[in-house]
# Entry
Amino acid sequence: MSPKILTHISTQLAFVIAAIVIAIMGVTMIGFGWVPHLSLLLAICVLLAIGLFKGLSFDDMQAQMASGVMRGIGAIYLFFFIGLMIAALMMSGAIPTLMYYGFELISPEFYYLSAFVLTSIIGVTLGSSLTTAATLGVAFIGMSHAFDANVAIAAGAVVSGAFFGDKMSPLSDTCTIASSVVGIDLFEHIRNMMYTTVPAWLLTVLLFWFFSGDTAGSNLSQVTLLQAQLIESGLVHSYAVLPFVALVGLAVFRVNAIYTIISTISVALLITYWHSAPSFGELGGYLFGGYAPAESLALGEVAGMLSRGGVQSMFFTQTIVILALSLGGLLTALGVLPALLSGIKASLTSSGRAIFAAAMSALSINVLIGEQYLSILISGTSFRSTFERLNLHPKNLSRTIEDAGTVINPLVPWSVCGVFISQALGVPVLDYLPYAFFCYLSLLLTLIFGFTGVTISPAKSTEPKNKAV
# Structure
């Protein structure tokens, strides 16, 4: 027997309940500084009370919550393997080696462009915008003074590159969530994002090239120090990039994400035992708790860059995903999401309008709540049925919520990413916001492509589609 849901709720009441949920999360997260988990649990408790008042049984609401979680179960499983892969890529030297050679790209003459390109590369290898900003980003801000560079422009370059990596890396949790919440393969999602991401990246390169030439210094001592620390770690080997070759090769041939990640981990472990021999006890500790260099090594800032990965590092994100999907299922049980969508359903008759609505939803959640994960999860869950009704491939939705969700969060001063990055770099959000070109170019391009039909894929054919349904 199917669980009971409310079908007669008015659009006005749905807006009131949605406003209550947003107020709960906004006040607790922004005002009280709560972690998202507590805010989500409080919102769930309030919705359970409303459901009981409306005559729904706990079993019915619990069934809908479980149904909501099942929509993202792929992401929850995938996170385990991503945690393993990050640890394996660290201990094998794949990520440290790519970082070492990436530092060769820094040019005093094209300092802002160097900062953007390098943080883009490291962001993809780390899969974490915040880690990239807190490590490499801090180093660039420090070098800005030696180069007599504009700190705000340098911070904008760091943020742009870090969030390019967060958006496009198969190691990124936001990338995994966006693909799983709409039900598509991780690498299919990444390939489709290239249509908006590559042009945005190239335009950003041009803009930072335009700003180049006004840096006077040429002191690369800090770069040399970071490279020396990477060498000291004992992880830099030319052959260590082979796991990345395997990862890219299997992704190009459209191998399932889980199989691709398992294969990459296997190659990384073979390389690990080629140049070092951790005991199986140490190996288990790294795979679960994350790789960490030996404390006897004087690695300075690099130690923080290399201490990453492990199954345990995924728990925070996995639990957010479970709670947010549960909240979405509960909103469905109460009839809130169906009522809200029915209120705008008549206007959502084309790909352009549907993409605009989904993008504005993700952007609004970022502004109102300041939470990156929730902007992706709630928008993806809410508009999935709309895209199905319009016969639009779900990869259009996953790309939209990344372009309007993932990369917009650092532009909101009170958001999780905005607060963290401004504190880590020592540059206010409003100072670097005008120069975070990649972030708002991604949003602009996804809206333009939505209304023009360019790169928009229908569900049952390969021809672009943007006509009314």
